[in-house]
Prior knowledge:
The chain is α/β, with parallel strands linked by helices. It has a domain at 44-80 and 252-329 and 436-486: 3-Layer(bba) Sandwich (FAD/NAD(P)-binding domain), CATH 3.50.50. 32% of the residues lie in helices and 22% in strands. It is built from 17 helices and 23 strands. It has helices spanning 7-14, 52-64, 105-113, 151-156, 161-173, 184-187, 194-200, 205-213, 228-237, 251-259, 305-308, 319-327, 344-347, 383-390, 394-408, 442-450, 470-486; strands at residues 44-48, 67-71, 83-84, 93-94, 100-101, 118-120, 127-132, 135-139, 243-246, 265-266, 269-276, 281-287, 290-296, 298-301, 312-314, 329-330, 333-340, 350-356, 362-364, 375-382, 416-423, 435-436, 456-458. A five-stranded parallel sheet has the order 10-2-1-14-23, covered by helices on one side. Strand 12 and strand 13 form a beta hairpin. Helix 3 (105-113) crosses helix 17, helix 5 (161-173) crosses helix 9 and helix 12 (319-327) crosses helix 16. The longest helix is centred in the C-terminal third of the chain and has 17 residues, at 470-486. It is globular.
Amino acid sequence: xxxxxxxxxxxxxxxxxxxxxxxxxxxxxxxxxxxxxxxxxxxxxxxxxxxxxxxxxxxxxxxxxxxxxxxxxxxxxxxxxxxxxxxxxxxxxxxxxxxxxxxxxxxxxxxxxxxxxxxxxxxxxxxxxxxxxxxxxxxxxxxxxxxxxxxxxxxxxxxxxxxxxxxxxxxxxxxxxxxxxxxxxxxxxxxxxxxxxxxxxxxxxxxxxxxxxxxxxxxxxxxxxxxxxxxxxxxxxxxxxxxxxxxxxxxxxxxxxxxxxxxxxxxxxxxxxxxxxxxxxxxxxxxxxxxxxxxxxxxxxxxxxxxxxxxxxxxxxxxxxxxxxxxxxxxxxxxxxxxxxxxxxxxxxxxxxxxxxxxxxxxxxxxxxxxxxxxxxxxxxxxxxxxxxxxxxxxxxxxxxxxxxxxxxxxxxxxxxxxxxxxxxxxxxxxxxxxxxxxxxxxxxxxxxxxxxxxxxxxxxxxxxxxxxxxxxxxxxxxxxxxxxxx
Length: 487
Ligand SMILES: Cc1cc2nc3c(=O)[nH]c(=O)nc-3n(C[C@H](O)[C@H](O)[C@H](O)COP(=O)(O)OP(=O)(O)OC[C@H]3O[C@@H](n4cnc5c(N)ncnc54)[C@H](O)[C@@H]3O)c2cc1C
């Protein structure tokens, strides 16, 4: 590991899940994981979506004695927690969620409850790379960063720059589970972009470009287009000293949950229509060629809002709810994974992680913690870059990524074997990677997103303070289960 990065910075930079906590007044949060005690008579609950939010809601409601049915359009559970296993020698890569910190009580809690083995998502002794303005450099103690940084910025180091400029605000974030949270100083940041905040703080142009190339630049359409409040909380949540992954793939968590609601899980069940009356909700869905209906006392809807937008709802949701559904967006994400016969980057003491201003944006090695000779390197792009990469053919995309990776990591070309892409914004069941907030959105849309509409309750990362994290999905599933139990 480079001397210029402390262990925490290294792991934070290596944890590529964009995520943040929303800083909103009166935000409903799950009081705890599980522990529901049946209130009144058991209810008949239909859960739309079998990602982590839907699975957690189903599991907790079932344990409390309610009758649940999960309708999931895919063949498999887990939604955006999916592990790609098409690589050789048993190697795998995450299509979505990569790692989680111990402070994420819901993720860590379920992982522990189900006895899933985890390991640190890091490998020490290897350097990361940066490529900014055509300058490629290792990020370590001996690097003289070839950019026009101020002396204080040089001292902060490449990966220390976001903290250097956001620290005073990050300190205000505190514990988002406290009732008094968030402080007004943080709420005020919702009206400006991250770039504006950095400029106000006196950041040099070069420092702004470095931060734009870092994982913060993966959120939405870049640092000039996301809420500064969103960015500050994203940094705050990345302050854990360690991040973990589930051994053999994070989809083990989805399967562990699904095993506990096996009989209640209807796969390839595509929800088409919701009709609500004073007495219940009728859900229309297709399974195979058949159109079917289910009547429910309560519905928990975990469908990402860009997907929900196309579902027929009668009577229409309230105007405010519909505004949240229409305006809340998910970041376009394209990941391109290339398998290589060997790992020349590790031979060169590089971990594969790179921050760049190139078309491929961030790079990382999904196989870093997996044993083997072969290895996988990936490009991880968000926003406009993700859209541009996804507009290319698979072959053209892999060629471009191979060429760019080859410029960063020597010795790759002769080792390339095959590749695959994961394009979240083109997945009709997700329509994006993870929620982000534009300036002015965080304080208004999140409370609306989670507000129930009659007998329909809402969960999913987009409704949680921990949006963009598995923890957000699981927390929101627990919160919706609690709402249903108490209703
Ligand atoms: C690229 C990427 C990187 C990430 N990195 C991290 C990370 O490092 N760490 C971390 O903790 N989190 C990370 N996350 C976030 C995490 O994966 C999500 O927050 C979480 O998985 C969302 O779960 P969910 O249940 O809210 O939504 P989903 O998983 O999207 O579940 C919704 C479900 O609804 C189903 N569905 C959609 N339409 C219909 C329909 N009409 N009928 C029936 N079912 C339907 C979908 O198939 C899906 O299964 C990442 C996500 C992405 C995409």
